[in-house]
Amino acid sequence: MEFALDFTKKQLESIESILEDELIDIGVQCVVLIDLAGNVIVNLDNGESDHDVYSLAALAAANFGAVNAMANIIGEQEFSLLFHKGDKDSIHFSKVGDDLLLLTIFGKEVSLGFLRLKIAEAIKNIQATL
Amino acid sequence: MALINPKKKEVQVKIVYYGPGRGGKTTNLEYINKKFKSRIKSEMVTVKTYNDRTLFFDFLPFDIGVIKGHTIKVQFYTVPGQVKYNATRKLVLRGVDGIVFVADSMELRREMNIRSLQNLEENLGSMNKNLNKIPLVLQYNKRDLAKEGIPLLSIETMEEDLNKTLNAPSFPASAVVGDNVAETMKKIISLTVSSLKKKLDVGEEK
């Protein structure tokens, strides 16, 4: 698979504003939109988190690839949703279209159900900008 | 392919160290990490198995400064060299911009080098990429072992085996000692970045 993703400044600004409104505003710590090669396309945070998003992106892309390979083994096309739960913070991964992944890092104060709704909304809006 | 962010004026470039298992790919990255600490803002990430072999990849981000108004962020990856991890190698190769092929100079490893290079060509082929068209540097690693009396392949033999049709720049090296590790890295960065310059010119107009 080859990636031919180019974003204009305007697209990036629209994506940032969607992520800010849908996710950062509900209390999410950090959101990172990446491609499946592990590149960071957009990253936003609430001003309090200081994660190494480039390493996170490389690992997340690989992790997603590995999980997809597992899906194929059991006869699934892919697992479109991945979620890792921690003691304090958790990561939610969601596919955006065919080539992008949205990572959302959030703490206990955000409910997973509400977050999933907001993520679905954000993804719909992001896809409209692509 | 490299990701250009016209808003942040930033380019992310992916360079993959490829080669047979135990050939010194991780050692190359470890040396770079130590030697160029000031340019590396985060920790090197490695995903290893219990016996210290690379399971998934190593990852090292490296800032090389500004070119044509864009901050260039080079991201070095290694692949797991062991034959059985081919699915993982394919994943790591996704979106690759430049490749360093780290060959093992030990006479015993001659066949493994050739097979690993073939495997690289096949994997790139499955992504509709051609090894002849991608920035590539060959490194003949472990030259230091000659001093310990371990039989090594001559550079001529390695060139004949691996580089006859590719004609890529090549370096004899010792990743453990650091000989030609920086030179290999500088060469692949310069080849990869020049291949991107045309794209950056277009990007500037956006």
SSE inventory with pairings:
The complex is a heterodimer of chains A (130) and B (206).
Chain A (H helix, E strand, L loop, with lengths): L8 H14 L7 E6 L4 E6 L7 H21 L7 E4 L4 E8 L3 E8 L4 H18 L1
Helix pairs in contact in A: 1-3
Chain B lengths: L2 E3 L4 E9 L6 H11 L9 E4 L5 E14 L2 E9 L7 H8 L4 E7 L5 H16 L10 E6 L13 H8 L7 E3 L8 H24 L2
Question: How does this model look, in words?
Answer:
The complex is a heterodimer of chains A (130) and B (206). Chain A is an alpha+beta fold and 130 residues long. Helices cover 41% and strands 25% of the residues of chain A. Chain A has one domain (32-129): 2-Layer Sandwich (Beta-Lactamase), CATH 3.30.450. Chain B has a single domain (3-201), classed as P-loop containing nucleotide triphosphate hydrolases (Rossmann fold, 3-Layer(aba) Sandwich). Helices cover 33% and strands 27% of the residues of chain B. Chain B has helices at residues 25-35, 86-93, 110-125, 155-162, 181-204, and strands at 3-5, 10-18, 45-48, 54-67, 70-78, 98-104, 136-141, 170-172. In chain B, helix 4 links the parallel strand 7 and strand 8 (170-172). The longest helix of chain B has 24 residues, at 181-204. The A-B interface holds A 1-9, 12-13, 35-41, 52, 54-55, 58-59, 61-62, 65-66, 69 and B 1, 3-7, 12, 14, 42-43, 45, 47, 56-57, 59, 61, 73, 75, 77, 87-88, 91-92, 94-96, 127-129, 203, 206.
How would you write the strand order of the largest sheet of chain A?
Answer: 2-1-5-4-3
Tally of individual helices of chain B: 5
Number of separate structural domains of chain B: 1
CATH architecture of chain A: 2-Layer Sandwich
Task: Report Rg of chain A.
Answer: 14 Å
Give the quaternary arrangement of the chains: heterodimer
Poorly predicted runs of chain B: none
Shape field of chain A: globular
Largest sheet of chain B: 8 strands, mixed
Chains forming the largest contact:
A-B, 28 and 31 residues
Give the CA-CA distance, first to last residue of chain B: 18 Å
Strand content of chain A: 15-25%
The parts of chain A where pLDDT drops under 50 for at least 5 residues are none
CATH architecture of chain B: 3-Layer(aba) Sandwich
Total strand count of chain A, please?
A: 5
End-to-end Cα distance of chain A, whole Å, is: 19 Å
Care to count the β-strands of chain B?
8
Share of β-strand residues of chain B: 25-35%
